[in-house]
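Supplementary Methods, section 5.1.

A reviewer requested that the exact input to the structure prediction be made available. We therefore reproduce it here, unchanged from the version used in the analyses.
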Amino acid sequence: MLYPQRFNQFTKEHADTLAALLCGFLLFLGWFALHLGWLGLAFLLLPAAYIIGGYESAREGLTTLFKEKELDVDLLMIVAAIGAASLGLWRREYHLIIDGAILILIFAISGALEGYAMQRTEQSIRSLMSLTPDTARVLLQGREDEIPISQLKVGDEIVVKPGELIPTDGIILSGYSTLNQAAITGESLPVEKTVGAEVFAGTLNGYGALQIKVHKPAQSSLIQRVIRLVEQAQTEAPPSQEFIDRFEKGYAKIIVVAGILLATLPPFLWGWDWETTIYRALTFLVVASPCALMAAIMPTLLSGIANGARQGILFKNGAQLEKIGKVRAIAFDKTGTLTTGQVQVFQVISASEYTQSDVLKAAASVESYSEHPIGKAIVQVAGDLDWIGAVQVQAIPGQGILGIAQEQQVIVGNAVFVQQYVTNLPEELREIAQSWEQEGKTVVWVAQEGGGAGEQGGSTSATLSDRGAEVMGVIAIADEVRVEAAATISRLKQLGVEQIVMLTGDNQETAHSVAKAVGIDRVYAQLLPEDKLDVIRRLQQQYQTVAMVGDGINDAPALAQASVGIAMGISGSDVALETADIVLMADRLEKIAVAMHLGRRSQLIVKQNIVVALSFIMLLLVGNFLGNINLPIGVIGHEGSTVLVTLSGLRLLK
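The structure derived from this sequence is encoded token-by-token as follows.
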């Protein structure tokens, strides 16, 4: 039973593509049968190609006609194809049936491509929904009971264990932990949270168990608001799409009305016989079919997409290739986009009587027992040094960690924590630490107290307080800026991008330090997902075409709202990748400038092709009206112009 289900699902998901392939196959067989003179077989195969390839277009065209009282290109294509086939049967020029089938095949392929593009919204929402668990562990009369998220009520108390996702927004009643909120708020470091702090659904709990009180309905949680924002932003049609729709409908109306007039008026106005009139009217429908006009766009965009793919730039649809060339403003997320998103040791400064190695070895001896990202970063840097793990390690949540290493008491933590155990902090190191903090870096102090641990009585904390300790040095922890970020920003400015801004959930100091390092002047910090969305909307009001570059779940609404959403392929979350229009597969920011160049070239080639296509159509229409061309010449001119603009579009493959 599994294989029939998979087959049915596959055919349902790819119905338009399968119809186009089958239409092309039947078209080839029909052409081959005509070539061999097997008319009976050809007259069976070619109508099947018409029906299979043209059914969807005919259905959409007729639906638009009867429900919206509008004519569109789909209906015009069907009329032109049937007209060509009818004329071919009438004059026994059966190759015209092939021409009609080719028109249908071209539109069937376009419909399949459009169908794939329309699947993105549903996929994005599914990715977002997977970020929160289906159930929550609720405390009921002193015992834990798992219930569906949808059944949570305001006031319920839930338990979240280490390593679990927070199921809904709430307030911590008891417990302490670090929460990884990068996916929601964009903060580069896990945030320490304790009693009274708010937590968000979809964030990852660290090493501590938490008891949380639900303070708002589950459907009002931050992650659910993100889902609704993505849904809304993706369903809003951009102005360019509305213009294309209006142009298509207007073009179809003009051609259909002109075709009807051409089929009825000439006998009365110029004395044409009815056979000549109908012949020229059908020729008019064939040569006026917008295939050359459509070919002026899609081959160019597909060539640009292929070119980008070779360079690690994934364009999800051709419209975004055009839009990226028109971008006037770009917004960058910070964490994971302008920075690597990985916490690293930035710098180590030691006191005069110690070396940097001494500081790192002492810190690593106690941090090796910590699960905190800062501790892991220190241990990673000290990996090549000769150090021994401490004993009697004691972690003080939110402050620091201490222990005994080689009969030496070691204290590692923030300034307030370390000051409890040292006589004073060296003024020189204090000034360095303050400058680091102003740059948005996290400062870790390392101190050491001599003496044998075995002789000490009481708690470690009491012993240290009595005897005093000495500062060994300070360690700066930071999220590393991507090496290519500054050069990318400079290149974008050279390309004429009028406004470049940075959006982040981090604090002002960290945001401004990163912005200064990469050359961005305008910074929006401490933003939630809806705040980023508002900034994008304001930029669009001022600059119209705006790009957003991001990698996290918190960037999804802004990526969806932006004229062009660009996601980081390696570090990006699933929902960011699904929502974005362009993906940088290797996380190389400099490829944004390459994408813009491709977009601008595609615009130029498309404009050239449109001029050529319209010129051919006008020449063929005038020639048909004057009686200087017959249907075969019209078809040759029509197909020739289509081939010409298609080959022109392939220039973008270079």
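Confidence is low (pLDDT under 50) at residues 451-467. These observations are discussed further in the main text.
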